[in-house]
Design brief:
With about 325 residues, the protein is mostly helical. The protein is built from twelve helices and eleven strands. It has a three-stranded antiparallel beta sheet with strand order 1-4-7.
């Protein structure tokens, strides 16, 4: 009977996440060597783990069932406030940050008190409260935000008021905006935490598991009729902003996307043409006729009720397509 060949370590297929993690470590190691002057350039800067050029796939459009409209967002946040007995105050502020500022789940949990610049003043525009997003947390690892770029996000007045009141409730020595317990000993999160060299006195932010448990309580009480993840708050910020006439460039900066192309591919259906919001607001104030009254005997009287009159006809011109004047 022939013996079955055993798979060697080199022939074993690794998971996609494992390959990406090892490849990223190798690429960052070579980037560090370039910065130290050991090699002139990074030979794998534009390569992918399979040996070819990195092909950038188009982002998939967002389904409407994965986001919320303005009424649903307001309802969910109101439910979170009403459920303060069963929902922690920090969870209400955390969800408000994601819904009103567009932060990612890990970025919001990893915020520290110095990141709040609520008294910032713009050189030209005056007061401009903002938040400096410069880190994210994942399984006990603190790192830069996605794509490695820090950014500033705007703070609307209602969120500014909520943050000011919430900061007053924090312990004096806490550096975290959402302080939590240290990861349990023996777990993967604790191992990553100790490997990062963080002092125990620094504490840690609220865990992803704890925040998700609070989210499930709020979502069940809101009764939106579908299952949503906390990322739906970030989706709602983007889709509502685009529906209200904000530009793709502004939303892309606030969301921290790689470029505006990603914003257009994912949220393009909610984007409005330039100036549509201004035009719609102007049309809402006008008493315009709902149909054409051309050729009717009482056309002049009907148009006069709407503040519109026909322009005088030029000598020698035909009666076809008589223009109107406001």
């Amino acid at each position: 009977m022939a013996q079955r060949s055993k798979k060697t370590k080199t022939s074993r297929k690794y998971a996609k996440g494992t390959v990406s993690q090892k490849w990223g470590f190798f690429r960052r190691m070579l980037e560090a060597a370039v910065q130290c002057g050991l090699i002139p350039g990074n030979p794998v800067a534009e390569l992918s783990p399979n040996g070819g050029r990195r092909a950038r796939r188009a982002a998939s459009p967002l389904a409407e069932s994965k986001t919320m409209d303005q009424q649903e967002r307001a309802h969910l946040l109101c439910i979170a406030v009403e459920k303060l007995g069963g929902v922690a105050l920090w969870a209400v502020v955390l969800f408000a940050l994601m819904a009103l500022a567009g932060l990612r789940f890990g970025e919001a949990r990893a915020l520290q008190r110095p990141d709040l610049e609520l008294d910032h003043r713009h050189p030209k525009d005056g007061r401009a409260p903002r938040i400096h997003v410069r880190r994210t947390e994942r399984l006990g690892i603190l790192g830069p935000p996605k794509h490695g770029r820090a950014r500033y996000v705007s703070v609307v007045p209602i969120l500014e008021q909520l943050l000011r009141e919430y900061v007053k409730t924090l312990p004096p020595g806490s550096i975290w905006l959402f302080p939590g317990q240290l990861p349990r000993k023996g777990g993967k999160v604790r191992a990553n935490y100790e490997r990062g060299g963080h002092p125990l006195e620094m504490g840690w932010c609220v865990s992803e598991t704890g925040a998700r448990s609070q989210w499930h309580v709020v979502l069940a009480a809101a009764q939106l009729g579908r299952k949503l993840s906390p990322k739906a708050l970030r989706h709602a910020f983007c889709t509502i902003a685009l529906s209200q006439g904000q530009s793709l460039e502004w939303v892309s900066r606030e969301m921290g996307h790689r470029d505006v192309l990603v914003t257009q591919q994912v949220y393009g259906r909610w984007a409005q043409p330039w100036g549509l919001g201004t035009l719609a607001a102007w049309l809402a104030t006008q008493r315009l006729p709902e149909r054409s009254f051309y050729g009717e005997p009482d056309a002049d009287a009907i148009l006069a009720q709407h503040g519109v009159s026909r322009m005088p006809q030029r000598p020698g011109a035909s009666n076809h397509r008589t223009p109107f004047a406001a």
